[in-house]
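Case study: ABC transporter substrate-binding protein.
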Amino acid sequence: MALGVRGFKAAFMAALLAGTAFMATPAEAAGKLTISSPQDPGSWDPIDTFLVNWASVGTNIFDGLTYRGPDRKLVPGLAESWTEMDGGKRIRFKLRSGVTFHNGEPFNAAAVKFTFDRLLGEEGAKGPQRSNYTAIDSVEVIDDTTVDLKLKAPDPVLLTKLAGYGAMIVPPNYIKEKGDAFFNVNPVGTGPFKFVSYAPKTGIRLEANPNYWGGAPKLSEVEYRFITEPATAVAELQAGRVDVVLPPTIPIGMVPVIQADPKLTLLSVPGPTVDALRFNTKSGITADPRVRKALTMAVDRAAIVSSILAGQASQIASFQGELSFGYDPALKPLPYDPKGAQALLAQAGVKPGATVQIDIRGNDATMNEVAQAVAAYLGAVGVVATIKPYETNVLLNDVIPQGKTGAMFQQKWGGWTFDYDNTAYAMYHSGEKWNPYEQDPDLDKLLESQRAITDGTERERILKQIAHTVADKALEMPLYNSNAIYGVAKRVKNFPPASDNRPKLTEVTVD
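Here is what the predicted structure looks like once written out:
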């Protein structure tokens, strides 16, 4: 997301790089994989982003202390092992020895300390990742290959959080020497692929790291092209100029096109990504919870899933899917009930012809269709809805965080930890970036309380309570939990269709 948070640094370097970034000599074509990604995150610094499209690339540049693959099992990463101590308030990590960053700098306990001191310090405060790791009080270096994370309170999700995003380990000397602005657009990690070049809004190129601790990749080069238009991405896939199209690019309407092409394969797997239309609960007609419930009841979400999404998703009652820890199957969506919706609107004093604006990501073709269907359903109960598309980075970095949305706005969330906390805290806790309108001290207490509980059963109970509370308040219109849909050329072998859109490419080959 960096252009919104730290764009002044990225823009400066981008101007320098734009004319020369793709001058590097390409590797052998037989070893090259070209991937279409729908969004340029604007910065490759792990602490600058929440975007899954950052993670699709970042997973191959950086490593965390832990790693979670497509099977969703947590395994050692840069840490060979770990031990919980002091009742869960200290975690001791035994680090891999002999690992180096791409610039030759050694990976050690000092690098781990630098990474988390930076994440939790002034630099991290400029980005969106810090709040995920605030359970960490301090980092203590025991020796070069041993480091302790001292926690303010136990965090049952921390080990999973260490496998992605802000917790990716970064090189201290490189950042100190080059500066944060340079690091934004010239990333260095310990991962299986090394940064080669970056052209803003165009693409990023990586090359194999032959000294990768997990084994050298079988590909020699990976190029990510930022193609915002879904139709263009699919056309490039069909033409053979792109080998993989990442989620959430492929519109449902184009699924049959890929399935019918003998050169292509469609890979669809259940994922954590959920979509909702959230409400402005502070002003306008949606400040009234009766109106929010009425608008939700006016929309046949099940019909949208079956028709527009062609079964490549499932309806949700809360902002999480069935794979999420904290999911409650007993919580049912509000029923589709147009007459009941009209009655609630009348109770709230909303007269026929009232208007609402629905803000969406302009390049999300599927959501554009969904929003049109929602607008039609709302029109049937007397509410006139207009749809306003935004460039994705503008919507995410300016409009939503600044509380400048219409009455309803699209929220797509990766939920990559498969734990409701990762979603709920960011969406509903007062003061969080993705919660520009709602302030509820009781909900805040629930969200805070579950973070310190190590008893899984009790914590799950509280997470379910949070979901019910949010549903009662109707803070959003829950829509659906999408499958992660990949379009892949058949010449690509061993591609892992990761449900969290973080495929690690070490075993991938191309014919």
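For the exam, be able to explain this: The first helix runs from residue 2 to 5.
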